[in-house]
Amino acid sequence: MLAAKDLRRHWPAMLAIVLLVGFVGAIVLASVAGARRSDSSLRRFNQASRSANLELDVGTPSAQQLRAFERQAGVDKVGVIRVFGMTSVKRPDVSFATAADGSWGNVVERRRVIKGRLANPDAVDEATIGESFAQQTGFHVGSLIDIVTLTPQQVAKGDFDPKPTNPHPQLRVVGIVRLPADLSDLAAAGSVVALTPAFSHAYDGKIVTFTLVLRIAVPGGPADIARVRAVGERMFGKDEAFQVVDPTRNNNGGQSAIDVLTTALRIFAAVAAVAGAFAIGMVVSRDIARTRVQQATLQTLGMTRMDRAAVNAPRAAVVAGGGVLIAVLGAIALSPLFPLGVARRADPDVGLHADWLVLALGALAVASFVTAVVVVATLRTTRLDRDLKVRSRSVTEAIAVSHLRPTVANGVRMALDPGRDDRAVPLRSAFAGAVFGVLGVTAVLVYAASLTHLADTPRLYGWTWDVKTRDVADPQRGPTRCNADTFGAEKLPELTDLAAICYSSGEVDGRDTVVWSFTPVRGDIRSRIVAGRAPAGDDEVALGRDTMRGAHKHIGEIVRITDSKAPVDYRIVGQVVLPKMSYQDVQPMAEGAVVTNAGFARVHKDDEDLSGVTTRFVVARLAAGAKEAAVEQRLIQLPVYDGVRETQPAEISNAIGGPTRPPEVERLQHASWFAPALAILLSVLAVITVAHALITAARRRRHELAILQAIGFNRRQVRATLAWEATTLAVVGLVVGLPAGVILGRLAWSAVSHNLGIGTDAVVPMLALGLVVPLALLLVNLVAYVPARAAAKTRTVAALAAE
């Protein structure tokens, strides 16, 4: 009866606590469930699309040979693709292909249409394009694709230069589709335009077919893939076009970006759970602590400590049960918001979901936590025989002789002196809430500022110059060499410092990587070194963080580099960050090796033509006042681009330009929602904690406030007293939370930058942190306004009589 009466009397407070528990629980459970769905999104996408895990380029076998391969390999999910000798004027690296037997795109690698429709099989001029291809070219549904082609006759003569007299089809885009590769960093390296069987029939014998490609979804594990591969090598391996490709790197390439989002959601859920548990614990404990004044009376009436503790059992049941119900329903209601970013694009089934494992475990955790808080708070409240220590009055005495205005002195005293017995105020939790809120927001601001600084500062991700220009392969210019040739760029007065860069595939202690060389031409352009120094001698190398880790080496040790020559030993002198030079590049910033020009020559054969194995750029810094766009236009006019300026504009745009953000930075930006969302959540929970403390303080100190009114305080002064109490809470929160938040934010960013291998320091946004001070003071005083206004309206006689 006593418990039921207590619930009826205080149902508004009980409802508020239930809503708080449900709010926090829903956010945490939805985030955890969202992380799980994000983590599995690409796997489910590959399953839904039946993505291939083996690719065989088999030349041009007959239909009987293909059927024999399927029987011997024991697979029925084979997509047979016919690759034509044609390319887009706008993107020369894109392949054009059609399903030779209708299997590709239907049985294997089924397409998810995101715009438009699939092409009509009977329409010669219709095509579907991949999402990444559409993004890179600006093509959309209805766009026309200009094509240049090669004929079988000219290819038979060894001529691979498209002729104006060759077939010149024009394709109309009718649909944009999404494949797993469209989610990957590797999507930028090219794509496939899917043609129709009607196109294949119309141009059979008119446009050369380079090869047939088998895209195979092999059931089972690596052993099954190896078995099917062996069958393919036995049947088609003698064809000079035969090649084995692992498509899983393309199909699963988006997982790294998804991992960033998944980690962000898990961190968000963990921080939300800790902050929410703190807020719930404080609010529930204070609500139960208000019954402390009744304990002596109830004991006098004959109630044992167990009886008095049982009064709070219904309270625990209502809070736990109601909170769990709202948390579960809220998590289900929030489920359509997840996954986020790349994971959302991958998820084949976005919508309302219930992750019953997360919901069940989460409900149990919420109920257990609330019950534990109620039990602990009840035991503390019902304990009457404890030895109450008299608190030090040094703070009160110091304020009494401080000659501060009465409103200031009393407000500060109330904030610092918790009181005793039934008038004790939970100041420690109030201060902890204020500190926690300021600390969290400050750490988030430091992290967000550091991420923005990284994204806006190309030097930090290895781009230590302003513009680049690439040597476009041209047989008439002779073999490519890694030397100081700048293609004529040295004649442009807008360019100051110049350097030549070469890079090619190689190995560092048996690990596949990319080997770079820097050749100074004018001024001083070097790679970005984050530890140690740049290589100076021909036997020195700087490695990316991942390369160094993969080789299990440190600065000062020896590694062996292999390219076209026998392995050569180099001494590691530094850790380097390597930039993304073109959209084909998929090398991570922390992967690669940098040597000098002489060091590069040590791993390449003398007089070797590097045009087929090495990419070469000239990089430069702009003179003061020079505009990047204008310089790029002048670079396009260099003679090296005469042969491709009109026919391959995509090659020009890839060869000339300014900074390109690496995928790692883009992934972090995709998770940029994390910082403001976490700041808002922490702010809300901190405000709830502080607000509850101020409301509790105003109620428990009605007697003190009534005495102040009795000796002359008017309503404005009472409000000012409570405002100064709130201000003191905010000041302590700022004094402790700001430096602690800066330290925490720097540590968080240091962990991220170290993981990226870029070695960049955190940025402390002084302006934003300066705004935190007035905003915190304003927010706390706004929160204090309601209890202050209510306290000011309390009649002095009624308050003293109640006491």
Short summary:
The chain is an alpha+beta fold.
Supply database-style keywords.
single chain; 803 residues; alpha+beta; 6-stranded mixed beta sheet; 6-stranded mixed β-barrel; 27 helices; 21 strands; disordered C terminus
Strand content: 15-25%
| Helical segment count | 27
Helix content: 40-55%
- Tell how many strands the DSSP assignment holds: 21
From the spread of the alpha carbons, the general shape counts as elongated
Main pleated-sheet profile: 6 strands, mixed
| Low-pLDDT segments, ≥5 res | 385-392, 797-803
Termini separation: 26 Å
What class would the helix/strand composition place it in? alpha+beta
In round numbers, the mean pLDDT is 80
Radius of gyration: 35 Å
**Strand order of the biggest β-sheet:** 9-4-2-10-1-11
Give a written overview of the molecule.
The chain starts with a helix and ends with a helix. Helix content is 49%, strand content 16%. It is elongated. With 803 residues, the protein is of the alpha+beta class.
Write the layout of secondary structure elements.
Blueprint: H1 2-9, H2 11-49, E1 54-57, H3 63-73, E2 78-84, E3 86-88, E4 95-99, E5 112-116, E6 126-130, H4 131-137, E7 144-149, H5 152-156, E8 170-178, E9 192-194, H6 197-202, E10 209-216, H7 222-236, E11 243-245, H8 248-251, H9 255-289, H10 292-300, H11 305-310, H12 313-334, H13 341-346, H14 356-382, H15 394-400, H16 406-416, H17 427-456, E12 467-470, E13 495-508, E14 511-522, E15 528-532, E16 540-543, H18 545-550, E17 558-562, E18 568-577, E19 593-596, H19 597-601, E20 614-622, H20 628-636, H21 649-655, E21 656-657, H22 663-670, H23 674-700, H24 702-710, H25 715-756, H26 766-793, H27 796-802
Parallel strand pairs: 4-9, 6-8, 14-19, 16-18
Antiparallel strand pairs: 1-10, 1-11, 2-4, 2-10, 3-7, 5-8, 7-8, 12-20, 12-21, 13-14, 13-17, 13-20, 15-18, 16-19, 17-18
Helix pairs in contact: 2-9, 2-12, 2-14, 3-7, 9-14, 9-22, 9-23, 12-14, 15-16, 16-25, 17-22, 17-23, 17-25, 17-26, 23-26, 24-27, 25-26
